[in-house]
Design a protein that fits this description.
The protein has 12 helices and 15 strands. The chain has a 6-stranded mixed beta sheet with strand order 8-15-12-9-11-10. A 4-stranded mixed beta sheet has the order 4-13-14-7. Strands 1-2-3 form a 3-stranded antiparallel beta sheet. Helix 2 packs antiparallel against helix 3 and helix 6 packs across helix 12. The longest helix is centred in the middle third of the chain and has 25 residues.
Amino acid sequence: MELREGQSTSIDHAGEFLASMRSIAPTAEQLSADAGPNTNTGPGAYPTYVINEISPKLAAARRAQLDIALAQRAIRRGDVTPQTAARLNYLTRNADINDSTIHQITIVQFVQQMIGRINAVNVITRAFTRIPADNLRGKIPEGGAPGVSVQVKRLSEPKIVHTDFGQTEFRIRRNDLHLYINREDRMEATIDPLSFSSSQGQIMLMQVRDLMALKELSRAPTVPTAFPGGAMSIDSSGQHVVPRAEADSIALFQEIIIAHWTKWRKIFKWIIMHPQDYRIHETNYYARNKRDPNPATPWGINPFAGLEKWGTMAILSPWVPRRRAYFLTDEGAYELDGPKVVDSEYDARKFADYFPVRDFVGYLLVHPERFAGKVDINTGAALGDEITTDAKIEELVRLPDDAVVKNDDA
């Protein structure tokens, strides 16, 4: 026989196994004794049930209650030590969580732990030079370089040159976040859901910035290379015993950097890739140089494997399309930060709370051919779709419809 919790709605043991029981058959003396049918002795006696096994969670909760009582008695006797006080504090909070009714203060602690823990990977924007912009419209200058006359003969007429100077126009639009909540719902809630939502919204806006940077990077031209079919293959080869030894991936990236330098006098500092594609390069035979395969590098900013002495940095983000690598110099890619507006509208606050957040930001490659590039890397994966529209960004940052489990009875 097993005992399971049915009617109780304890948050800790709801519907869980509590204990198992076993029966002890009555002895011959009990059966022959002269007693009534409703007792454990005499004719008609029924077996005796004892607990055979108890749920570890239930036992642990009970032991915690006993430990709390012991700690409280020790404090009343004056036996107060830092260890005793810390133990009592831990057991009290543990009992709050394991009890059938959770104190409201514990719920607030839960919410404080939740806020700010959304994993917002926000690294691509580091490759863009941040420029505070007071105006939402303007122009960004682009400098050139004068020509040089080499080995001029005497009495030759000098060639007078000047520095070209360009301008690229920009216009900053905004990202909107509108939060609305009924005033009565806010008064009834134990926590402040408006503050919670605004904190999460700020994190999501930072994520949107990364995707906007990727959208601007999609304007970068394809790097002209001598690779067959326009793709740089660094995938595994069945013709070699050593995995990924067919192509020297470091030399291929180096070729792109040098070719761009000789044409534009600009060195690519940032290479933006998907973490799994970077893993293919990271485990290339020439990149690891006869060593064991390196641990996978997580997303973030890391020195580019094999090009550390060049000062080249790898920016890894799961938002980058597969088989795409974007190249950026340390000039010509700008993040334009306009004024930030955070306010609540008075008319809406009469009956509800309305909280709009407006993030004025824009990303701009002033001259994509000169300051950026992209290449298709053949890593064996399917070619991912680039982010080219704002609607695609809204789709990517939106959580699934079933992301939150709602309980109307809570």
